Amino acid sequence: MRARVMLDLALGAAVSAILLVYLVWAMLRPEDF
What we know:
This protein is mainly alpha-helical. It has one helix at residues 2-28.
């Protein structure tokens, strides 16, 4: 059960990090859009 919670937290953190990087990249390179 604890492993499932840790997995969910890890996936949530990974998704948040990817979205954050994408947003920063989009703001730094607006000309590509």
